[in-house]
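Cross-check.
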Amino acid sequence: MIHWIAEGYMFAAGSYLFFYAWLVFGVSKASESELKIEVL
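Predicted model, tokenized:
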């Protein structure tokens, strides 16, 4: 039981970090494209 809880917690933390990294990556890409448009 405790093992399942620990695995579930690790999985939730990993997916949260993955979502956060994806969000930051998307924002950086969007701002980068905006900068390119401004330069052009």
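The chain has a mean pLDDT of 81. The radius of gyration is 17 Å. Passed to J.P. for a second look.
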